Amino acid sequence: MNYARAGHIAVNAHSRTAQQEHDIQKEIASEVPVALVYNGVSHAVMMVTPEDLKDFALGFSLSEGIINGAEDMQSIGVREEENGLLLTMQIPEEKFMGVLRRKRNLTGTTSCSLCGIESLEEAVRPLPPVQNSLQISSGAIYKAYDNLHEYQPEKMITGAVHGAAFVDTEGNIMLAREDVGRHNALDKMIGAAVKEGIDPQSGFALLTSRCSFEMVQKTVAFGAPVLVAISAPTTLAVELAEEANLTLVALARKEKFMVFSHAEKII
Predict the structure, then answer these.
(1) Alpha carbon distance, N-terminus to C-terminus of the chain
(2) By C-alpha distance, which of 242, 247, 262, 237 is closest to 206?
(3) In angstroms, rounded to a whole number, what is the distance separating the alpha carbons of residues 48 and 110?
(4) Architecture of domain 32-123
């Protein structure tokens, strides 16, 4: 199979309504297996939209605690194989030893970021609390929500991808990334922000998806003090956000949202 590195491709489809039917071409989101390989050893296989893959590699490595900062990522390569794509990364030997200890060489999916985790302690790993007292106005959240669609070209074309954005305190979207997997979209955004030198404590993360505990973990690992999700949170997401000093805003709609933890940061 040829794995084109494009966010979407055109396929043949048959359209039917109550009044008519006809053959069409429909743009649909790309979803390909991508193997994350550290120092020559496969760590995990994720189903990913094959755009911004180097951002994904960096963001995943940071949000999963494999590396501590961009300086630990010595190189990133992308290679096409017969059965998918390889993201080949070189990291310091001491970081690589941690990869081997986790034994996470299993297949992931677009909805799971725990593949290969072998214990409860690994699943809900402890994270240092976010050290930030930044306050965000309600107006900034409304503004970012209203403008987010402009930064989601793949969603407008396919209707099948999630988005994650980094937003400054004025509600300006600094950058955004998309993917069929909500975890992947957030990892891509984190990688892009780190690569661009954006201070994670200078704004907030905005998601188009529901907010499960992994999204909280990744945001805390990134260092953003506020996470805003358009859909609902889970119980564990709220608990972890409270413990990690993360302000969790969810069910964000036009001029409406709910704050589930550390509401003092929303003014």
Answers:
(1) 52
(2) 247
(3) 7
(4) Roll (3.10)
Q: Which two tokens stand for residue 250?
A: 């969810």
Residues catalogued as catalytic: 112
pTM, rounded to two decimals: 0.90
For residue 77, how many other CB atoms are within 10 A of its CB?
A: 13
Low-confidence ranges of the chain (pLDDT < 70): 1-5, 103-124
Residue 128 DSSP class: P
Q: In what order do the strands lie in the sheet with 173-179?
A: 173-179, 162-168, 203-207, 226-229, 247-253, 256-261
| Entry field: residues in the chain | 267
How confident is the model at residue 116, as a pLDDT? 47
Domain(s) labelled CATH 3.10.20.10 in the chain stretch across 32-123
For 138-265, the fitting CATH number among 2.40.10.10, 3.40.140.10, 3.30.70.870, 3.40.50.300 is 3.40.140.10
Q: Is the dihedral of CA 64, 193, 244, 231 positive or negative?
A: negative
Q: Which two tokens stand for residue 86?
A: 């390889």
User: Which letter does DSSP use for residue 171 in this model?
Assistant: S
Structure tokens belonging to residue 190:
């984190």
The H or E element containing residue 256 is strand 256-261
Residue 215 has a pLDDT of 96
Q: What are phi and psi of 15, to 5 degrees?
A: -95, 135
Question: At 68, phi and psi to the nearest 5?
Answer: -95, -25
Amino acid at 60: F
Per DSSP, the chain holds a count of helices (H) and strands (E) of 8, 13
What is the rounded distance in angstroms from the CA atom of residue 139 to the CA atom of residue 266?
Answer: 10
